[in-house]
Specification:
The chain has 328 residues and is of the alpha/beta class. The protein has two domains: 148 residues, Rossmann fold; 166 residues, L-2-Hydroxyisocaproate Dehydrogenase, Chain A, domain 2. The chain is built from nine helices and 16 strands.
């Protein structure tokens, strides 16, 4: 590395920590902002092929670090900026347009991963890699094959955001703080995802025993289906209205990053390579997983109804077929 590069892109030293974000679009920039506010690392760097854009985004955030936990922020179109990162988050990819499903983006985005992943591995071989780019499950599976990394070291953001959306909607129905809603969405981050209603709780009360909602309605099949549909369609509504989702996904991924950097051993519905999970193997999709400093750990198996298990099997098959069409 040149002396100038060393000055521009300080590498990790001592007990310093570093987060590298690939892609300075709406999601990447928002994620960088969220990580700086949370104080997840000593240094946050952004990489993007658009030099003017990435430098501007980094500078805008850097001007505010006086008001955050101590941190340094920089941006570049030189992959060297990512050297020795502890965590690499990939947000770069094809942009989802109104009316497109996430799976519609697969071909272009996976092609991009064939360039990005090897380049980042050259400078940050020991990082924990988090894939955010949609369709995240297929992109994660393809990136694992491209990189040769273990499923512990490389995984996707999965349905951490969908789970947050589900809990938010249940909170609205009950008036209970969202932090006390315990429910997960598993499967594809997309149209075939499955809310795990059978294990959902409010406090320690099973959802099926909750009783009437604020409107007087029970958590019956009709209400659960309406909430599921709202979770699935919310991204489409946001994209139609403002062109991209960025705030909630930035916060969701920031939570995953925090779980890694602080070795929190937090249970999150990340997209990881499954091996005989409820009979599902050789596919990346979301399941409750313990996340810590070494990346993705034990995959948990909550109680499932037959309908939920069937839904997850169908979701896995949908993702597996998409990966096969791309040659993986």
């Amino acid at each position: 590395m040149s002396e100038k590069a060393k000055t521009l892109y300080p590498t990790k030293r001592g007990d310093r920590s570093k987060i590298a974000i690939i892609g300075a679009g709406a999601v990447g920039a928002t994620l960088a902002y969220a990580c700086v506010i949370a104080g997840h690392a000593s240094e946050v760097v952004l990489y993007d092929i658009n030099k003017q854009k990435v430098q501007a985004e980094a500078l805008d955030i850097a001007h505010g670090i006086q008001f955050t936990p101590m941190s340094a922020v920089s941006g570049s179109d030189d992959i060297e900026i990512c050297r020795d990162a502890d965590v690499v988050i990939v947000t770069a990819g094809a942009k989802q347009k109104p009316g497109q499903s996430r799976l519609d983006l697969a071909d272009a985005t996976v092609g991009l991963m064939k360039t990005i992943i090897p380049a980042v591995q050259e400078v940050a071989p020991d990082a924990v890699y988090i894939l955010v780019t949609n369709p995240v499950d297929v992109v994660t599976y393809a990136s694992l094959k491209i990189s040769g990394l273990s499923p512990e070291q490389m995984f996707g953001s999965g349905t951490v955001l969908d789970t947050a959306r589900l809990r938010y909607l249940v909170s609205l129905e009950t008036g209970v703080a969202v932090q006390n809603i315990h429910a997960y969405v598993a499967g594809e981050h997309g149209d075939s995802e499955v809310p795990l209603w059978s294990s959902a709780e409010i406090g320690n009360v099973p959802l099926r025993h909750w009783g009437p909602t604020l409107s007087g309605q029970q958590f019956d099949t009709e209400l659960r289906e309406r909430i599921r549909k709202d979770v699935v369609e919310s991204a489409y509504r946001i994209i139609e209205g403002k062109g991209a989702t960025n705030y909630a996904v930035g916060l969701a991924v920031s939570q995953i990053v925090g779980a890694v950097m602080r070795d929190e051993q937090r249970v999150l519905t990340i997209s990881t390579l499954l091996k005989d999970w409820e009979g599902i193997s050789d596919v990346c999709m979301a399941a409750p997983t313990i996340v810590g400093r070494n990346g993705a750990g034990r995959v948990l198996t909550p109680p499932l109804t037959l309908a939920e298990r069937d839904g997850l099997t169908e979701s896995a098959q949908r993702l597996r077929e998409a990966a096969r069409k791309l040659g993986f």
